[in-house]
Design goal:
Elements lengths: L1 H40 L6 E6 L11 H16 L3 E6 L11 E4 L8 H10 L3 E3 L11 E3 L2 E3 L6 E9 L8 E6 L2 H21 L6 E8 L1 H4 L4 E6 L1 H4 L4
Parallel strand pairs: 1-2, 1-3, 3-8
Antiparallel strand pairs: 4-5, 5-6, 7-8, 7-9, 9-10
Helix pairs in contact: 2-4
Length: about 240
């Protein structure tokens, strides 16, 4: 009888120990995944981050509702990573200092002039063609190769990470050809950051293009990684 009770007790202890170890392992795995995600986005728990949103074309001071939605999605992600967010407009001047900056929106039409400044200062191989008639309207030029905008059908968003020399924290730039591209890029980064990290040579500094297809059917949901264009974007040939 005593042997039977001992076996039962041993079984209960073993089961309990296995459950505790399993819980600790799953918790450790989640924490490691969280740390990897935080490292990709260049943030640390407890830090304050800076989000810069552009204006709706023709409406200074008012963000397009899709850019605002992208900002909300990004704020939720940063909250999951334990960060606090300060939101500023695209006319913000000065460096990001010790705050990781997330700059959303293209420079065309004066929507987000800070994006234009970042491109000029840190991505010499990138330019955005001006809005207007013709096939090259708002095309993204990376090292001489054009990524054209086909409204309602297909477009691109450029995503870059770099750290200004005067700052201690990085800038993550999201520059879509429209507000649809901005929202698609943020959603894609939330889901597929590990795929982007695996595709670039260094997660500390990179530039990739996100392609958004079949917009007339799937809106911003069908986004994919077009490729790593870091060398051309940063003027490395």
């Amino acid at each position: 009888m005593d042997a039977a009770l001992a076996n039962i007790a041993l079984g209960l202890v073993t089961s309990l120990l296995g459950a505790v170890l399993g819980w600790l392992w799953r918790g450790g795995r989640r924490r490691r995944a969280l740390y990897r995600k935080a490292a990709f986005f260049g943030v640390r728990p407890g830090e304050r981050c800076l989000m810069v949103l552009g204006s709706k074309h023709g409406s200074p001071g008012n963000a397009h509702h899709r850019d605002a939605r992208a900002g909300v999605e990004l704020a939720v992600l940063l909250a999951e990573l334990g960060c606090r967010v300060t939101v500023e407009g695209g006319t913000l001047l000065g460096g990001n200092g010790d705050r990781t900056e997330f700059c959303i929106g293209g420079p065309e039409g004066g929507a987000n002039p800070r994006t234009g400044g970042h491109l000029a200062a840190h991505l010499p191989g990138v330019s955005i063609r001006p809005f207007g008639p013709g096939d090259d309207s708002v095309a993204i030029d990376v090292g001489g190769r054009l990524y054209r905008f086909d409204r309602g059908i297909q477009e691109y968003a450029l995503v870059a990470r770099f750290t200004p020399a005067e700052s201690t924290r990085p800038v993550l730039l999201v520059c879509g050809q429209s507000s649809v591209g901005n929202q698609a890029a943020v959603e894609f980064l939330r889901r597929e950051y590990a795929k982007v990290a695996a595709a670039v040579q260094s997660a500390q500094r990179f530039c990739v293009l996100i392609r958004i297809g079949h917009i007339d059917t799937y809106l911003f949901h069908q986004a994919s990684l077009e490729g790593d264009v870091s060398r051309a974007a940063f003027g490395q040939g």
